[in-house]
Amino acid sequence: MTLRPRGGAPALEAELYDGTDVIDLVWLGRRRIAGIEPGRMIRAEGLISVQDGRKVMFNPRYELRGVKGE
């Protein structure tokens, strides 16, 4: 997880791996989201785009799941 400004506004970025591929999740205008932390399992839904050769989903809808290993 990374806090990285985009266009002068804060953006929270998380890398999601589903066992087959990686996608970057980006929440614009957010510095933190309660429950989203390294190792947390989530389900994300939204429009996928490609930036600099990486899959990216901006402001995805999400559902918090259990912690990895539980």
Helix content: under 10%
Strand order of the largest sheet: 1-2-3-6-5
The overall pLDDT, averaged over residues, is 89
- Global geometry: globular
Structural class: mainly beta
> pLDDT below 50 for ≥5 consecutive residues: which ranges?
none
Strand content: over 45%
Biggest beta-sheet profile: 5 strands, mixed
One letter per element, helices H and strands E, the order comes to EEEEEEE
Q: How many discrete structural domains?
A: 1
Gap between N and C termini: 21 Å
Task: Give the tally of β-strands.
Answer: 7
Indicate the radius of gyration in whole angstroms.
12 Å
The number of helices is 0
Notable features of this structure?
two-stranded antiparallel sheet, mainly beta, 70 residues
Quick summary of this structure?
This protein is mainly β and 70 residues long. Helix content is 0%, strand content 54%. Strand 1 and strand 2 form a beta hairpin.
Protein model, in words:
- It is a single chain.
- By secondary structure, the protein is an all-beta fold.
- It has one domain (2-67).
- The chain is 0% helix and 54% strand.
- It has no helices and 7 strands.
- It has a 5-stranded mixed sheet, with no helix packed on it. Strands 4-7 form a two-stranded antiparallel sheet.
- A hairpin with a 2-residue loop joins β5 and β6 (54-58).
